Amino acid sequence: MPWERKGGGGIRIVSPLVPLTFCFETVGHLMDAVERAVHTLHVLSSALGRIGSRFFLCVTVRFSERIAARSLFTEYGEYVGAGALTAAYIAERAETFIPNAAARMAMYF
Questions:
Q1: How many CA atoms are closer than 13 Å to the CA of 33, on its beta-carbon side?
Q2: N or C: which end of the chain has fewer CB within 10 A?
């Protein structure tokens, strides 16, 4: 069900968490984006893959922060798409794939 009842007769929209995928041409752009994200967004999960010379970051944020996340990450890279299928494709094709990447990178900031 895409909604649930709240107390007082209201409803709240419930949506499954969907990963957003972004592509970065340099590791510097990737690191700058992640550094800003871990300080301004609630990154619930993330994964990093490298295909050729490009870095692909899949991030899951709160539903209320999806627009802010897309805006932040596109300052440094390109938006590729959203959904589990996009993330699975990158995981399958990537030469290197690192789960929980944003949290691991945050340790260096």
A1: 32
A2: N
Distances (CA, A) of 79 to 3, 20, 36, 106: 28, 8, 17, 21
- Could you tell me which of 65, 63, 76 has the C-alpha nearest to residue 22? 76
pLDDT band of residue 28 (cuts 50, 70, 90) is: very high
* Amino acid present at 57: L
Rounded distance, CA 34 to CA 78, Å? 14
pLDDT in tens, 14-25: 677 889 999 999
| CA neighbor of 23 nearest in space, from 98, 64, 79 | 79
Could you tell me if 109 and 38 are in contact, meaning their C-beta atoms sit under 8 angstroms apart?
yes
DSSP-derived letter for residue 106 is H
What pLDDT does residue 21 have?
96
E strand or H helix at 8: none
